[in-house]
């Protein structure tokens, strides 16, 4: 599991996260939800050590993120942030191959090449493998970044808004693959998601954040209620049901 204890974070003296204590369960798909500016990305970045921890403690599968060596942590957890400032004159196959770096450390073997190819095929990118990043669409580039994180082949996969730019079919396919990683692969996934019905349909566990605090956490049925969501988003939200899971209606 990922354990977060007493995490506070400030940017330029402005408090962003206030004493966050929560757990992301192992072997589950966790969705982080909440309004813009709630602190979801900041929390994910702290877990993934993209930002140094200022206060509190985070452990990923018992590895303290502050003290665990980077190469060890990179074998346990892959993180895909929201801003991926990677050179655009990189072929998709080269980008995806970066995911294998923590394993081969510059000397890729046949297994690394095979996994890169599998990642390209899994994310329907095989035909685009030789294209440069600036020669593909936003959704194709997004899928290539996800494929890179997937190729890292870690127990934990952390994704910040992976559904950005994906059409309905590719979004659904990605959620299906993430569920497969959890259900068949025994992996654990945490993702920031804005479209609540993806969390409703696919997540096992939901953490709702607002104003730098966890405001609710539990199963989708426990968190995705009219009371919790209306308060979270300061808007009247209706919740129905579809195939035994919440169906969130916000066009009312
Ligand atoms: N580099 C920065 N400098 C100053 N403030 C920042 C910086 N990065 C984030 N913040 C602030 O920290 C707060 C939390 O931002 P964060 O990106 O974690 O929220 P979020 O819940 O992921 O939002 P969104 O859904 O819009 O992506 C926001 O108020 C944001 O303005």
Automatic annotation (TrEMBL):
It comes from the Bacteria. GO terms for molecular function: ATP binding. Keywords: ATP-binding, Cell membrane, Ion transport, Iron, Iron transport, Membrane, Nucleotide-binding, Transport. Residues 2-236 form the ABC transporter domain. InterPro entries: AAA+_ATPase (IPR003593), ABC_transporter-like_ATP-bd (IPR003439), P-loop_NTPase (IPR027417), Siderophore_ABC-ATPase (IPR051535). It is a peripheral membrane protein. Its main location: membrane. It is found in: Cell membrane. PANTHER family: IRON(3+)-HYDROXAMATE IMPORT ATP-BINDING PROTEIN FHUC, PETROBACTIN IMPORT ATP-BINDING PROTEIN YCLP. This is ATP-binding cassette domain-containing protein. It comes from Paracoccus marcusii.
């Amino acid at each position: 599991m990922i354990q977060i204890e007493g995490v506070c974070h400030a940017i330029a003296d402005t408090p962003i996260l206030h004493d966050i204590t929560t757990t992301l369960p192992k072997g589950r798909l966790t969705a982080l939800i909440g309004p813009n500016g709630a602190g979801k990305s900041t929390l994910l970045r702290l877990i993934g050590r993209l930002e140094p921890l200022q206060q509190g403690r985070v452990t990923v599968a018992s590895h303290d993120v502050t003290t665990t060596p980077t190469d060890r942590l990179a074998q346990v957890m892959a993180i895909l942030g929201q801003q991926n400032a990677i050179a655009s004159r990189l072929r998709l196959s080269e980008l995806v191959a970066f995911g294998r770096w923590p394993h081969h450390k510059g000397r890729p073997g046949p297994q690394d090449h095979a996994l890169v190819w599998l990642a390209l095929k899994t994310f329907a990118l095989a035909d685009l493998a030789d294209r440069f990043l600036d020669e593909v669409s936003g959704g194709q580039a997004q899928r290539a970044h996800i494929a890179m994180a997937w190729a890292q082949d870690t127990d934990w996969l952390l994704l910040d808004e992976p559904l950005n730019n994906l059409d309905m079919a590719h979004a659904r396919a990605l959620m299906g693959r993430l569920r497969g990683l959890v259900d068949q692969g025994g992996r654990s996934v945490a993702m920031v998601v804005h479209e609540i019905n993806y969390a409703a349909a696919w997540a096992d566990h939901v953490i709702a954040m607002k104003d730098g605090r966890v405001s609710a956490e539990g199963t989708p049925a426990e968190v995705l209620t009219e009371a919790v969501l209306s308060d979270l988003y300061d808007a009247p939200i209706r919740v129905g049901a579809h195939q035994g899971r919440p169906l969130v209606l916000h066009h009312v």
